[in-house]
Structure formats: C-alpha cells, structure tokens
User: Which sequence fits this backbone?
C-alpha cells in the first residue's frame, strides 16, 4: 500500500509508515516540495496508486465529486501534537490498511475511524 502525506502533516509520519512496511512519500519529496498544488498531488495519487493523507478538507470535495485522489485518508483531529498523531497512526494503521481494501475514503479523528465509501 502506498501513501502520499500532504504538507499539513509532518514528514516524520512518512517514516512511521515506512517502519511498518508501507511505501510512503511526503509532498517535500515531490519536485515542488510543500508548494505542490492539489491538482499535482491528485495526479501523483492517480498515477502511482497512492492514498493521500491530509488535513485539507478540499480533498473531500474532489473525492466525492470526481473520485479523485485515488484514495483519501482525512485526518480530522484538529490541533494535535506530532507525538499524539504518531500514536494515533500506530494504534490504527492495521485498521486503516484493512479499511482501504474496501473503502476509498476514510476519516480519522481522535477517537474513531469513519469509513465513508
């Protein structure tokens, strides 16, 4: 499973995903880095089969209206420390990867995973 972590989230999150055996890149790894615009993130997601991990609610509109990006993990935790975020991912990564077998859009808040479709 491949992930593309958006600029709103720490690059350290890609390292955590890699540690559990997943393929992960951050927008900083793309040619324009954290200045990469949403259409380019969507293009990379579609071409490489990457799940976009973001806090940016704009992607919710595009996945609902255009089925883009390829798949979406929306992090809707509000303000959270990087340590809390990493703990949240560690506790839920297995459920997230299992969920993406069936669902294209998953939302993660501080307490739940919400499988949208």
Assistant:
């Amino acid at each position: 499973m491949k992930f593309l972590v958006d600029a709103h989230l720490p690059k350290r999150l890609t390292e955590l995903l890699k540690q559990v055996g997943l393929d992960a890149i951050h927008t900083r790894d793309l040619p324009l880095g954290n200045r990469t615009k949403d259409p380019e993130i969507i293009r990379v997601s579609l071409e490489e089969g990457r799940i976009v991990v973001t806090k940016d609610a704009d992607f919710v509109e595009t996945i609902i209206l255009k089925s883009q990006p390829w798949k979406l993990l929306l992090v809707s935790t509000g303000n959270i420390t990087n340590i809390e975020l990493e703990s949240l991912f560690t506790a839920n990564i297995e459920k997230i990867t299992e969920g993406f077998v069936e669902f294209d859009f998953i939302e993660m808040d501080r307490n739940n995973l919400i499988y949208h479709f």
In short: The first helix runs from residue 12 to 19. The longest strand covers residues 50-54. The mean pLDDT is 97. The chain has one domain: 2-115.
